[in-house]
Amino acid sequence: MIQRGELRLPEMQRQYVWKKTRVRDLLDSLYREYPSGTILVWDTETVVQERGFGVTQEKSAFASSTRLLLDGQQRLTSLSAVLRGEPVTVRGNKKPIEILFNLEHPDAPAFVTEVDEDEDDDDDDEGDGEETPDASKDELQERFERMAFVVGTKKLEQLPHWVKVSDVFRSDGDAEFLARSGVEKVTDARYKKYSERLAKLRRIRKYVYRMDVLPRTLSYEEVTEIFVRVNSLGAKLRSSDLALAQITARWPGSLATFLEFQRTCDDKGFPLDLGVHLKNLVAVGSGQSRFRTVGTMSVETLKASWAAAVPAMEYALNFLKNNAGIGSPALLASPFLLVALGYFGHKRGYAVSASDAEDLRRWVLVANAKGRYSRGSTESFLDQDLTLIKEGGGPKELLDRLRLQVGRLDIAPEELEGRNRRSALFKTMFLAFRAAGAQDWSSNIGIALDHKGNQHKLQFHHLFPKAVLRKHYPARDADDIANLAFIGGKTNRQISDREPAKYFPEVFAKSTSAAFDAQCIPTDSVLLSVSAYRDFLAERRTRIAARLNAFLGVP
């Protein structure tokens, strides 16, 4: 139905966002004949604004009637792509979904998959494969052999008992797969097992979803309400997705307008989730951030709010890049910072004094470092700041509000203890080190997130390699941010898993001690042994905290 164009997507739907690991888990469930939910559609003759599927569709021959998919888009798009062996389109980019099937998998599932329901699904490809940072190659291989399906890797593709799922779906014969796995005779003990498993895999093509069909007598507004209720019950969609459904119901065609501005931000090097732009619309239009107000906003209010939200976001992005030096959303603890910053510019009519601009820069950097909108009740904190700005408060008042939340604006060394690279403080470390002139240790190119080429692409280097620490310290200790530095990929590979005492002299020879000073790295020989690792971390935390406080401009 999807391929023939008989099943379409209404504008209220979100984009395709599933990571490849979710597709892997869906196939595993279908292979084991586990339940996989139902599908909800609406039969209608009403002309409704649509959005494209993530897979190609033919033009439907049934122009007078449309069947719209309300629930099941992620599952059906994934299956359509895998069954056809086609890539999916996400934000204008085509991405293949290559899943491999293990002919030698154990009969019982090895483990229960934990599904992460956070808002990171829209990230490009980070965490989209099977790699586990803390696992060795042997541990990964052992883990894969306990699984029936994995996201494809070049190494696994070379193994004879791993086959591409899409290749199996496109073929009704087993000969090529059996021959490739070394099964040449019917008497081979693997012949029956492999043949039965390939047949069971192909039965996924015949899996029957129960389809609930909403009648044509319903209005678009009623269908939108059903969509919101169905998708809110199981937390399947985020509040921003439900808000989008309500907005498009009142303002047909608005999705194209939102996506056009989203692409404009993407082109400027600042890709943001559509939900951030919608929250910006709500904030500018209502002075608060809760999406619950969307249901009461008229189409005129929505249009006027969006017209004001665009320059607000443009102000926020320009200030963030050119005043605060934050040129990528990867360096933000929370994108909500953009909403508050844009609202400040909007309420000031984009006329900000030099002193206020400097104080606003300090607030942005400290709020980002302290995770103002990434801890606890994030929307409550955002609403506090929006209200303060609405009532005429400025950057100094925003800093006072932040101090009430976190207690102190400066960074203490103990705040760095136990933090990993996902910490807001780690992002600020990068900013501070870059401001101090940190460079790659071989090429002496300044550190940046947008370097081209694998040899220059920025990596998080473990000063004490994991392989060196594994026998002496817990895995989490190795990932402490005080053990991380920023260097290029080629330099990281050259260092490999050698101890600091062995490779530090080489770096000195190429870059002198300035390379270490820029990233607050102690070079005292007594701290470079594995036995002194915790002392090394303590010393570096002290240096990093001092550097961060100087960078943030806090006492």
Keywords:
555 residues; alpha+beta; three-stranded antiparallel sheet; 23 helices; 12 strands; 46% helix; 9% strand
Write the topology of this structure.
Elements: E1 7-10, H1 20-31, E2 39-44, E3 50-51, E4 66-71, H2 73-84, E5 88-90, E6 93-95, E7 99-102, H3 137-145, E8 149-151, H4 154-157, E9 162-164, H5 165-169, H6 175-180, H7 189-202, E10 211-214, H8 220-233, H9 239-250, H10 254-267, H11 274-286, H12 299-322, H13 336-347, H14 354-370, H15 378-390, H16 395-406, H17 424-435, E11 458-462, H18 466-469, H19 475-478, E12 484-488, H20 489-495, H21 500-511, H22 514-517, H23 533-552
Parallel strand pairs: 1-4, 2-10
Antiparallel strand pairs: 1-3, 2-4, 5-6, 7-8, 7-9, 11-12
Based on helices, strands and strand pairing, what is the structural class?
alpha+beta
Q: What would you call the shape?
A: flat
Q: Give the neighbour order of strands across the main sheet.
A: 3-1-4-2-10
* Poorly predicted sequence stretches spanning 5 or more consecutive residues: 112-126
Rg, please? 27 Å
Summarize the main sheet: 5 strands, mixed
Strand content: 5-15%
The total of helices stands at: 23
Overall number of structural domains: 3
What does the average pLDDT come to? Answer: 88
Instruction: Bin the helical content.
Output: 40-55%
Number of strands: 12
User: What is the CA–CA distance across the termini?
Assistant: 64 Å
Fold and architecture overview:
The protein is of the alpha+beta class. The chain folds into three domains: 7-206, no CATH class; 250-409, no CATH class; 416-552, no CATH class. Helices cover 46% and strands 9% of the residues. The chain contains 23 helices and twelve strands. It has helices spanning 20-31, 73-84, 137-145, 154-157, 165-169, 175-180, 189-202, 220-233, 239-250, 254-267, 274-286, 299-322, 336-347, 354-370, 378-390, 395-406, 424-435, 466-469, 475-478, 489-495, 500-511, 514-517, 533-552; strands spanning 7-10, 39-44, 50-51, 66-71, 88-90, 93-95, 99-102, 149-151, 162-164, 211-214, 458-462, 484-488. It has a five-stranded mixed beta sheet. A hairpin with a 2-residue loop joins strand 5 and strand 6 (93-95). Helix 12 (299-322) packs across helix 13.
